[in-house]
Design brief:
Distance between the termini: 63 Å
Number of strands: 35
Domain Beta-fructofuranosidase N-terminal: 18-127
Subcellular location: Vacuole lumen
Shape: globular
Structural class: mainly beta
Region (Disordered): 17-38, 73-114
InterPro entries: Beta-fructofuranosidase_N (IPR021792), ConA-like_dom_sf (IPR013320), Fructan_Metab_Enzymes (IPR050551), Glyco_hydro_32 (IPR001362), Glyco_hydro_32_AS (IPR018053), Glyco_hydro_32_C (IPR013189), Glyco_hydro_32_N (IPR013148), Glyco_hydro_beta-prop_sf (IPR023296)
Largest sheet: 6 strands, mixed
Strand order of the largest sheet: 21-2-3-4-5-35
Oligomer: single chain
Keywords: Glycoprotein, Glycosidase, Hydrolase, Membrane, Transmembrane, Transmembrane helix, Vacuole
Helix content: under 10%
């Protein structure tokens, strides 16, 4: 039996005194608006119980209007064309240029689209449909990692990697936006630009730490004029400004250089700091030694002078360079989030790394010893980089922060494009941020975290559609009477006919989301996103994402989908397993997009209950300075 689906479709308390930051400093001038290293996973499923059985934009429906093809010049070189005007040789096929690797960061271009794939003749309507309506993104151009998220004086602040000049990676600057509710956003002038020798080649990823007196320190990686990765300090020029408009770079930056034995391009992305039992601050920075991914440990009292500890926080052989390391506590008894400095009974620590080699975010649960400054995974077989992933789709460089206003841990993640650079230049933008997710410990399994969309997103819900206890016989296809499938919030549960399931158990065939091989006598539930029929265009990614998801005794398979044009965020079993997909349909757009419920099982019926809401668009616009 094989039931498939298709989807397009951190208040610091009890802290000791610290050396103060410099007073009245000069503000920054002119602020302006790899291979996979996972441990092999033994597939123990012979039957897919009831994975996502929604179909979104699965049918190739022809849009009745023929659209004018976008004709926009991406690049030109008249002189080169003149040289070749009378030649008859065929053009040499070259791979598109790499982005970021030569400067020592992860590849920023979607490499699965190659140069020899023909560019699809995208229309204005198709490209316009792809832009999201309630996910955060700038008004134009390139965006990647979320940086230094924080809550200050009633406003949530998001900083992010941004190219002000183009829809492809480069000239990395810190964009800045604020929100009251994490859904509707106001764009602010750039927070920091690459204008000093220590960050002239990029103001890269960083994290915020809120000190006991309310001061904010921002540590970030800069790419120097010699392409060396260094750590720099910045802080607000005016802490009483709710907008935090102006940021000061510490005059004696950098504050940390690559230590002996660490490559000049293998030292980046400092975490939020936390207080140890000695009253000193700690933070960790990702790196590698040969092919072993490591997390370096530093200690400071003033955020200016740093001591590299002899021991590393953790290392995992074979995982390669660790980027965007995140480290934070979760309560095993309470549902609230914890400040980054919390430790003790009833607390586990999450260690997460973005692996440069395979471009995925991995995490593990474990125990942090604040005396030895060592973290130990609960299960070595599920260690960082070889076990659980935060998201099994297109999701990278994630970053959490503690929301002291609502006592919760929130997670941001960069969702890149899976189309070609040529298309991104045509549409004038690239990448979005995920809907912020709460993060808590899964008390039922004891081995997972749970990620769930923030409550605030539900404010966008409008008219709903609901069906209960619909029996889906094998091979059935049920269209849902939803007028528009572009912006949806869908929750659903599924129950398998247990007796029929036992009767069709095939003990000689195991299954995962991309293959069906091997022999085993057990079963698992798999949660998958199959994009293979998401578009007729050949220059887009159309892979199959997914993993197994624990469905415990007495639980129904449940899921939630946030559909926002070209992005679908899918959450199974309250967020035990999450998949983010990017899709670029050419026909099933606007009124031609549909939602279906189906069962591809070969002998088992499934009972489904579904509720779906239309989602309004969020308000994202420049801050109205003229109204102040």
């Amino acid at each position: 039996m094989d039931t498939n689906h298709f989807l397009p479709t951190h208040d610091l308390e009890h802290a000791s005194l610290y050396a103060p930051l410099p007073d009245n400093p000069r503000p920054q001038s002119d602020p302006s608006p790899s291979s996979t290293h996972r441990r092999p996973i033994k597939i123990v499923s012979t039957i897919l119980l009831s994975t996502l059985i929604f179909s979104f934009v699965i049918i190739s429906l022809v849009n009745p209007n023929i659209q004018q093809v976008v004709r926009k010049q991406v690049a030109s070189s008249k002189n080169n064309n003149e040289d070749d005007h009378n030649t008859s040789k065929s053009p040499e096929k070259l791979e598109p240029p790499s982005r970021g690797v030569s400067q020592g960061v992860s590849e920023k271009r979607f490499r699965q689209v190659t140069a020899d794939q023909p560019s699809y003749p995208w229309t204005n309507d198709m490209l316009s449909w792809q832009r999201t309506s309630f996910h955060f993104q700038p008004q134009e151009n390139w965006m990647n990692d979320p940086n230094g998220p924080l809550f200050h004086m009633g406003w949530y602040h998001l900083f992010y990697q941004y190219n002000p000049d183009s829809a492809i990676w480069g000239n990395i600057t810190w964009g800045h936006a604020i929100s009251r509710d994490l859904i509707n956003w106001l764009h602010l002038p750039f927070a920091m630009q690459p204008d000093q020798w220590y960050d002239i080649n990029g103001v890269w990823t960083g994290s915020a730490t809120i000190l006991p007196d309310g001061k904010i320190v921002m540590l970030y990686t800069g790419d120097t004029d010699d392409l060396v990765q260094v750590q720099n300090l910045a802080y607000p020029a005016n802490l009483s400004d709710p907008l935090l408009l102006n940021w000061i770079k510490y005059p004696d930056n950098p504050v940390m250089f690559p230590p002996p034995g660490i490559g000049s391009t293998d030292f980046r992305d400092p975490t939020t700091a936390w207080i140890g039992p000695d009253g000193k601050w700690r933070l960790t920075i990702g790196s590698k030694v040969n092919k072993t991914g490591i997390s370096l440990m530093y200690r400071t009292t003033d955020f200016i002078s740093y001591e590299l500890l002899d021991e590393i926080l953790h290392a995992v052989p074979g995982t390669g360079m660790w980027e965007c390391v995140d480290f934070y506590p979760v309560s095993v008894t309470e549902a609230n989030g914890l400040d980054t400095s919390v430790n003790g009974p009833g607390v586990k620590h999450v260690l997460k790394s973005s692996l440069d080699d395979d471009k995925h975010d991995y995490y593990a649960l474990g125990t942090y010893d604040p005396i030895k400054d060592k973290w130990t995974p609960d299960n070595p077989e599920l260690d960082v980089g070889i076990g659980l992933r935060l998201d099994y789709g297109k999701y990278y460089a994630s970053k959490t922060f503690y929301d002291q206003d609502k006592k919760r841990r929130l997670l941001w993640g960069w969702i890149g494009e899976t189309d070609s650079e040529t298309t991104d230049l045509l549409k004038g933008w690239a990448s979005v941020q995920s809907i912020p997710r709460t993060v808590v410990f899964d008390k039922k399994t004891g081995t997972n975290i749970l990620q769930w969309p923030i409550k605030e997103v539900e404010s966008l819900r409008s008219g709903s559609y609901e069906i209960d206890d619909v029996e889906l016989k094998p091979g059935s296809l049920v269209p849902l009477k939803i007028s528009s499938a572009a912006q949806l919030d869908i929750v659903a549960s599924f129950e398998v006919d247990e007796e029929a399931f036992k009767g069709t158990f095939e003990a000689d065939a195991s299954y995962n989301c991309t293959a069906s091989t091997g022999v085993d006598g057990s079963s698992k539930t798999y949660f998958c996103a199959d994009q293979s029929r998401s578009s007729t265009a050949s220059d887009v990614g159309k892979g199959v994402y997914g993993s197994d998801v624990p469905v415990l005794h007495g639980e129904k398979l449940s899921m939630r989908l946030l559909v926002d044009h070209s992005i679908v965020e899918s959450f199974a079993q309250g967020g035990r397993t999450v998949i983010t997909s990017r899709v670029y349909p050419t026909r099933a757009i606007y009124s031609a997009a549909r939602v279906f419920l189906f069962n591809n099982a070969t002998g088992v019926s499934v009972t489904a209950s579904v509720k779906a809401w239309q989602m309004a668009s969020a308000n994202l616009k420049p801050f109205p300075f003229d109204q102040l």
